[in-house]
Amino acid sequence: xxxxxxxxxxxxxxxxxxxxxxxxxxxxxxxEAALLLAEVAQxxxxxxxxFHPGTQCPDPEAxxxxxxxxxxxxxxxxxxxxxxxxxxxxxxxxxxGTPDHPAxxxxxAAETKAAFGPCAPQLLFEPGR
Length: 129
Fold this sequence. Notes:
Elements: E1 6-10, H1 30-42, E2 46-50, H2 60-77, E3 83-85, H3 101-116, E4 122-124
Parallel strand pairs: 1-2, 2-3, 3-4
Helix pairs in contact: 1-2, 2-3
């Protein structure tokens, strides 16, 4: 009866560099996220993960850190996730120069492939305002 119902577990990391760090406010720790993700799968839901590196985050390394953590969480939970929502936080030009979005997106793709290999989840992006 639960087939096809997706439940996403949001996790947080202590990642610096954003104008506002959503990780300080929302999400489970890596260990908590692994337990929750395993329970989501055990109860018959479709497990997914999500995170948000923070507002106005110019550093591709923030997404890389989160994606590597997502890989660790999935391995600890011993599940395959359907989707990974990499949040938003993509910088806008606010008088400090045009952000290098292609570099961020390329890093997200490379880290996802490295963290998940052939079982890479579908990626979701939240473009923001």
